[in-house]
Amino acid sequence: MKIPAAALLLVLGPVCAVVLADPAEPVTPATFSLAECLAYATAHQPALAAAQAGVTAATASVGEARAPYYPQVDLNAGYHRWQRRAFLPSGLTLPGKPIPDQIGPLNDWTGGLSTRVTLYDFGERRAGLAAASARKAGAEADVVTTQADVRLSTQLAFHALATAQDLQAVAEKNLNRTEHHLSIAQIRRSAGDVPQADVLRLQAEVAHAQLQLIGTQSNVRICTGRLNTVMGRAAEAPLHIAVDHDIAPPPTPEDLGPAINRALAQRSELNAAEKRTDAARAMVNAARAGRAPKLRADAAFGWNDTTWVPETQEWQAGLSIDVPVFDAGRRTHRIARSRAELAREQAALETRQLQIRQEVWAASVELERSWAAIAANETALRASEESLRVVQERYQNGGAVVTDLLDTQTALARTEASLAGARWDYLNARAAYDRAIGATP
Q1: What pTM was estimated for this model as a whole?
Q2: pLDDT digits over 31-60, tens only?
Q3: In terms of residue numbers, what domain contains 46?
């Protein structure tokens, strides 16, 4: 019997997928705690590699800025065959020969060494080196900033996934309760105690609870992909997280003033902005020095002849001074541009200081709010659970209608979801507050 190709593909497709799967990809989902997520992100997040590459480039710029302090030595060698018109004085005669009107063709073999060094430039090299060193320090501060951002993003993504999983558990509990209430209504309907409308109403609620569960399951998958991406993994890579549901300790009281001062002293963004300002100030000094004379020394030694190997020695050594006279305003515009860039960096530094103050203030307020929300939701949860228990007993005994039961159940599910979110919101607030004040792990 011949098997259709489509049917064969359906049967063998999964097998082929297993055979062709990347052997490096784990078959079972990896399980990460928060600490393991942070360590993985630190090792694999491309943003950190990019920031480190910036430090490498800045380090090379420092070496480039230091190079003009040393002599430059060049090795020269060449060969030319040339012919030129001879411009001789009028009246000149050669005994027995006509006056030549051209010289050549001749061979010209050259070889030698030349060197030159700037002896004094009124601080232009020093300013350039200072600017490069400041940019390197700024790049190193940017690495610290990127590490802090990656850490915070990983924590927030981890907490978001944990929240989504807790909300999925809440949706599952709500579905189980709704199905239980449906069974109660069906039993009472069979006994003739309630109308068919109660059963239909609860069937609709079961379907709604199922839709809510599907939505939470989808959100778990989305949050898993987001955490994978933040960690530097493919979004579709399998991932499980190990969650600690213990209540986090309450926030430590801290005055806003010392917290802001601590942030201004520790935040790497401010350090980077200060270094960029220093670099811009050094570039202003370099631009000013560009208008001053420069004293240079140079020397050369080599051979020049019409035959190979050249034997005629040539050499020269001396000093030169370059004095700028006219450059169509290029140096003036360079100074103006450098001053404008310095003003821009100073304004950016002041703006960043204001932003950090606002971040600390907002993070402090959110930390207090999120901690208070946990206690309020716990109180509401206990009241909602007791209320549902009472209403459920009354409904079973005919003392309550189905609307009372559904309203109480909805309130309980909402409170459970709110409490699940409040606990992780508090951990998010703690992470954001630590980031705002520049605390290091």
Answers
A1: 0.82
A2: 899 999 999 999 999 999 999 999 999 999
A3: 27-82+100-106+120-294+329-437
